[in-house]
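Reviewer comment 2.1 asked that we show a complete input and output for one of the modelled complexes. We chose the flavin-adenine dinucleotide case, as it is the one discussed in the main text.
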Amino acid sequence: MKEDYVVCRCEEITLQEIKSAIKQGAITLDEIKKYTRAGMGLCQGRICSTIIIEILKEHGYLPQYSAPPHSRIPVRPVKIWEYIGEDQDV
Amino acid sequence: MRKVNLVVVGAGPAGLSASIEAAKHGVKALVLDENHKPGGQLFKQIHKFFGSEQQMAGTRGYEIGTKLLNLAKEYGVEIKLNNRVIGIDDHNTLAIIDNHKYSEIRAKKIILCCGATEKPLAFPGWTLPGVMGAGAAQTLVNIHRVVPGEKIIMVGSGNVGLIVTYHLLQAGVKVKAIIDASHKITGYGVHAAKIKRAGIPIILRYTVNRAMGTNQVEKVELIQVDKSFNKIPCTQISFDVDTICLAVGLSPSTELARMIGCKLYYHPKLGGYIPMVNQYMQTTIEDIYAAGDMTGIEEASIAMEEGRLAGLACAISLGYISDNAQSQKALENIRSNLSQLRMGNGKGGIING
Amino acid sequence: MYKRFADAIIIGGGVTGTAITYYLSKTGIQPILIEESNLNAGASGACDEGIVLQSKHTGIMLDMVLKSAKLYKTLEDELNYPIGYRNVGGMIIINEEKYIPVIETFIKKQQQQGLNIHMLHPSDIHKQQPGLSKKVVASAFSKDDCNVYPFKLTLGYVEAAKRLGAKVLLHNRVNNITINKNTLGDKRRELRITTNEHEILTPIVVDATGCGSRQIGKMLGLEIPVFPSRGQIVITEQIPPLIKHQIMDAKFIVAKHKPQLVEKNNALSNLNVGLTIGQAETGNTLIGGCREQVGYNTSTSFSTIREIVKNAADFFPFMKDVSIIRSFAGLRPTTPDNLPILSQTPIPRFYIASGLGGDGLSLSPIVGKIMADLIMKGNCNIVDISQLSLDRFFNIG
Ligand SMILES: Cc1cc2nc3c(=O)[nH]c(=O)nc-3n(C[C@H](O)[C@H](O)[C@H](O)COP(=O)(O)OP(=O)(O)OC[C@H]3O[C@@H](n4cnc5c(N)ncnc54)[C@H](O)[C@@H]3O)c2cc1C
Ligand SMILES: Cc1cc2nc3c(=O)[nH]c(=O)nc-3n(C[C@H](O)[C@H](O)[C@H](O)COP(=O)(O)OP(=O)(O)OC[C@H]3O[C@@H](n4cnc5c(N)ncnc54)[C@H](O)[C@@H]3O)c2cc1C
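Response of the prediction step:
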């Protein structure tokens, strides 16, 4: 049996899923994200990206040669009521 | 929309130093931090800091924090806490959740001092309760005064691993061992010596093979690695532990820098992707500066000097001090402090792990 | 530089290019798909999940989407790949009385053309979609609207096409297309494609590059009028299944079909913001949307995101307690008349499948099929594609 464990906790994406995405042609953090959903969750890849970088390195895809993923507002989760400026019991 | 000359994101040592330096020269600086207390990482540190006298070495982390805060007050820096910066756009507008309410502020200059987050290490079982970052363990003991577990193994022999181990020992926790995949201890000798005196083994060239347990960590299995960090079969050893602390490095928090389009590059020794900065700590975007852990994981004293450099550079470019030989000299002084600090620890200033 | 040959080349790894690659492979030839970055790098990686029938104008668009929806029903089995196809049904919700007659007329025509759609009885609206604000006074419902997960859809097509002998060249940007003069009398060498890594000779080239089409056209001296229209989307954390349908604010339809009715007096309408909302299988909700002419800029803007979020809270008050985790923007490849270009060109065996606007996902399989017919048979009797030809932009007057 191949060694397997969860890499992206937010989306529960496993090592084997990442590896098969690499086989299918995903070679950057952004591409892995699109192929597998790793990094699409609540923490937006803050945790798993270092692990995925290591996995990519093992396959010969060095982070030096690719850009880091895009970042978009909001960089932290925000409740909609906070966003629209409504009062709410905190 | 409120308009200000200078916004500093992050009230850690870098952000506070940047705002103080700018305020010294008359810039009204506004510091935003998402926490309810200022100080960033500093307030977790109850140990004496390393670094030079000038950067308050020999003072404990939280004392440095208090001093910086007092200075900030003295110079009239405005610090807004519970202010999450959730975005920055290309007009230098910051989108902020200010105590649960959305607001926007426009700044002429922005200094990003967002610090870093702990790196994880993945192995079978790493998602079991009982596996935690050393920083989280440190917050528990030093701030909340709770112990994270009874029998702990620390992964990583860098300064963070060594220091947090020491804090855990002081809190009465049994630390079974510190392990590191490297062939030598990566933190400073002084810290390692303390650990060794306390009788804690430091096991090198081992990594975690897996964590075992039904609902929570009960056992950790280690495995030996060769020079290229490949696992060597049949070398497993195991320990009964309920907590695995990971001190395997920090990763710079670059979300905001990436959002505005600052160019980043990958520097493994400095923690991963970091924004490119020039000799003024200015990023590839004119009005955006960056300092501290987010431009490379080093240490608090370096974060402070980098912050000062950025703060002074902003004061100059905002026209509060004229750009002449004298101000260039002042910048040069800070730069030479920085290179001294970086040489001083013989490692280019890098906390490995 | 590697030199090679191909039966056909498809440029663009979005839902359009991958579909064409698959349907062409099914005819027995072995095409090569070329993508400058990776699958879903363009609009297909920055869209909602809707296979939306009821937003389509009657005529060729509705005709195509009805046929597309039929293909979708069996696509997952056919591709033998989990593409996240779900028959969720869709609503067009109306919160302004004045939109009701517009939508009513709109759907009457659609019914005549065979779309399964009706106005809900006012007392049924909130049963159909609990949690909807009481401001919603009317709603259309079609049980035929579906969801599909674009990232898996493209992979599904590609994996199936590969099994049939197709090849995929990722991270290859087409830098030039030329007509090869030195064919040695061999039609199979007529067109030459140059990428950063390869030079390929082929008899057939299909442009499926969405917003890249103008650039591709220039390589061959053709004007292909496809322009970006930005849409922004907000993603929330995962929540229990509460948004049952693919939902669209009538304003979005009215703005598209009767823009004069939509007031332009507030920030909201100036941004062309109209609610679109759907909940993915994962539990995340995707909230949109807007149409903005801002060139090729794919960043999100604070004001639009805030309007989108406000709109969501307005229509779904319970959403106020939900967290937003991310936003993104995509560029709809749009033509001046809002119809796609599925067409031959003055250059023999150079085809265009582009300009799919806000409908590319919904139309993906039928576009694949139409293009396979057009290329292999020289004509297409699925729909009357003369209306979608490139000439239509140049034959006026
Ligand atoms: C266990 C441990 C021991 C250490 N020991 C030493 C030592 O002995 N000597 C030494 O010199 N250094 C030591 N360090 C390192 C030192 O703490 C860091 O180098 C220093 O704190 C970095 O400062 P900073 O200002 O860059 O970041 P931080 O201190 O991390 O501050 C960043 C601040 O920015 C805030 N922030 C980030 N993003 C946002 C946002 N979007 N909106 C609002 N606020 C935001 C964060 O919440 C945080 O408060 C140690 C670190 C650790 C973890
Ligand atoms: C916010 C938003 C929401 C949407 N929601 C929906 C919806 O719910 N339902 C629906 O049906 N549609 C929706 N759409 C529309 C849909 O996304 C598009 O119509 C569709 O994705 C277009 O697909 P495409 O394959 O034609 O183009 P794209 O997906 O843009 O693909 C073009 C590809 O070509 C590549 N390329 C470009 N130039 C070159 C070159 N020179 N060499 C090699 N490769 C090149 C690009 O990298 C890209 O991958 C939405 C769009 C947006 C923006």
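Residues 121 and 237 of chain C are 32 Å apart (CA to CA). We note this here for comparison with the apo prediction described in Section 3.2.
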